[in-house]
Specification:
- This protein has 92 residues and is mainly alpha-helical.
- It is 77% helix and 0% strand.
- It contains 4 helices and no strands.
- It is elongated.
């Protein structure tokens, strides 16, 4: 059976479902089983997405992608700078 990837919106929805189920008197373990994930996954999701709304999660993902793109750009420019520096000093 393959891995299922949940979208950020689905994760937030499932975290809210657990909150509702625990408020109705179920234990956390029962609520986690009800949404169909493991306890490890639930606690990982809660640490990453706990307290966020769907809009905030979308914005977070956009910022993470932009940050990764900018990091790649900076590393490329740094590498080019080092290559030009070596070429200018005659160390090829």
């Amino acid at each position: 059976m393959g891995k299922k990837r949940h979208t950020a919106e689905e994760i937030v929805s499932k975290l809210r479902q657990v909150d509702v189920l625990t408020a109705q008197g179920r234990t956390v373990a029962e609520a986690i089983r009800h949404i169909g994930v493991t306890e490890v996954t639930y606690y990982r999701w809660r640490s990453e997405f706990g307290g966020l709304t769907s809009d905030q999660v979308k914005r977070l993902k956009e910022l993470e992608m932009e940050n990764a793109r900018l990091r790649r750009a900076v590393s490329d420019l740094t590498l080019e700078k080092l290559i030009l520096k070596e070429a200018a000093s005659g160390n090829f």
